[in-house]
Amino acid sequence: MKLERTITSIFMMPTLKIDADVVKAMRFDKAINFINAYSYDKLRTNYPDNAVFLLFKPSNLFRFKELLEIEYKRKGSTIADHYDYNGGYVVVVYLLNKKLNDDFEQIKKGKYSKTSPEYQNIIPKTVKVGIFEKEEISLQYRIFNKTKDLVKFWEDQFDMVFDAQQEIWHGFFDEKETLNFAKIQVYA
Question: Which pLDDT tens digit goes with each residue over 55-114?
């Protein structure tokens, strides 16, 4: 089963300002094995509303703990906690910047193009992809700005023409954005 990135991973996690090298390790280092980010944890309800839950299944705990220590010590880090689940899973809890709450609410409503310029500027316009790290326009930028290539992609997928008011990404659904033990087992 292929894991689909959550809205939390795509639109909220980048605001945590995690160091680029740490993010790269999270994405590509199998010793770290980042799985996804969630807005809720079904089994942990004692966190504030602005918490996000990053799920990992590290194969090398020493390497993972090194990365976690770097993040705890990073100036501006918003790590609130971390905890384990059976089967070698680790959840790292971050707190989102409350100044961006209005933007996060727009995201939860599926109104990506209505987020503030301040929020949109936090997320890089371009990203490096592939083994040769080719630079291309980020998915978020395409969604915020309803770029022609992304609009055309979805119009072709659905065989319809989008109007100017139409957002071009799927909505935020609490069920998909909630970490639960059943999800953990699916990706084991």
Answer: 999 998 898 898 889 888 888 889 999 999 988 999 999 999 999 999 999 999 999 999
Distance CA 75, CA 162 (A): 43
pTM for the full predicted model:
0.88
Q: What size, in residues, is the chain? A: 188
Nearest to 51 by CA among 17, 95, 7, 109: 95
What backbone torsions phi and psi does residue 137 show, to the nearest 5 degrees?
A: -65, 135
Distance CA 148, CA 155 (A): 10
Mean pLDDT over 177-185 rounds to 78
Tokens of 124: 């890089």
**If residue 149 lies in a helix (H) or strand (E), which one and from where to where?**
helix 148-158
Instruction: Give whole-number Cα distances, 16 to 129, 152, 157, 184, in Å.
Output: 20, 31, 32, 23
| 147 vs 164: CA distance, rounded Å | 11
